[in-house]
Amino acid sequence: MAQDPARYRPKPYPPPEFPPRRLPAFARTPPAIFPPILGLMGLVTALRPGLDRWGLPQEAADLAAGLVLPLWAFALCSYTLKLTLRISVLQDDLKVMPSRAALAAGTMGGMVAAGHLGAFAPRLGVGLLAVMLVLHAALAILTVRTLLTLPPEARAVNPGWHMTFVGVIVAAPAAASFGLVDLARVLLFGTLPLAIGIWGASLLQLACRTPPAPLRPMLAIHLAPASLFAITADLLGLHLVASVFAWLVLVIALALFAALRWIAVSGFSALWSAFTFPLSAAATALMLHGGALGWAGQGLLVVVLVANPWIAWRVLKLWPGGQLAARTNAAEA
């Protein structure tokens, strides 16, 4: 029986472009730039109570804020320019699980920035906070819309859901500092059920199956909501609630440190940025609570002072050459 030679013919591939096609500037800005910057901003926040307890001047934290806020603004402008080239690229980035959490980190960074700006320009801080809350809500809606188009296995609950659906809790401490106590309460008690649901689903998943090694650093994100709940409750004078979540922060942090070798078994990657903001927030929460937990928070701050800048440097240095976009599968505008 004669065989069809077409079946064994090599598949045609398009010839390489010469000269190579040059992408417009910022056409492949990766969402992965936002988490390490959020971690640096969280470090600035943790520095304030840390410097106070160490008897050092707050000007060091102000200087750090003056360095990090322009970095966040530049990253936001870079991704905005990417959107101006093709607005639908946002939906393409939202199809990738780590990118969904990374985009949420961008607006969360704006909420932290609002709190830092509020110390010098309260009106500007309140305005930025309002804009970031609206953008984060819109991002959450687009994320839900994108998830509904994905296969069931891609819609499974993961730690990144905290960033998208609970991330507005980051605005609560800033809102409290601006005197918007009712808004801070709404954010606290509105996001609490969502966080509990994500924690419960994640615990069930861990009991049933082992997460892939490259994605395990995202488990650190579970620390962030508990930390923000403790911080917000402390600022609102809800001391019992703050105490409950401060101890929960300590339990989660100890569990993460105990499993650190297992979590980081696949080696360094851009997903290590998931360690940065949760650890900063945990240090802040423990220091604000005081007592023995306050000493633990100071020790954690020392770790964060080294880890966050190191991780941010290793991730962000890959951005200019396009390696970060390639390694994180960033969409091209």
From TrEMBL:
Q: Name one Pfam family in it.
A: SLAC1
Per the record, the domain of life is Bacteria
Q: Which species is this record about?
A: Rhodobacter calidifons
Protein name, UniProt field: Tellurium resistance protein
Bias-annotated ranges (Pro residues): 11-21
> Does the record's keyword annotation contain Transmembrane?
yes
Sequence segments annotated as region (Disordered): 1-21
Where can this protein be found? Membrane
Q: How does it sit in the membrane?
A: Multi-pass membrane protein
Locate the transmembrane regions by residue number: 32-51, 63-81, 101-121, 127-148, 160-180, 186-207, 219-238, 244-263, 295-313
PANTHER family from the UniProt entry:
DEP DOMAIN-CONTAINING PROTEIN, TELLURITE RESISTANCE PROTEIN TEHA
Q: Which UniProt keywords apply?
A: Membrane, Transmembrane, Transmembrane helix
CDD domains annotated for this entry? Answer: TDT_TehA_like
Q: Which InterPro entries match?
A: SLAC1/Mae1/Ssu1/TehA, Tellurite_res_ion_channel, Voltage-dep_anion_channel_sf
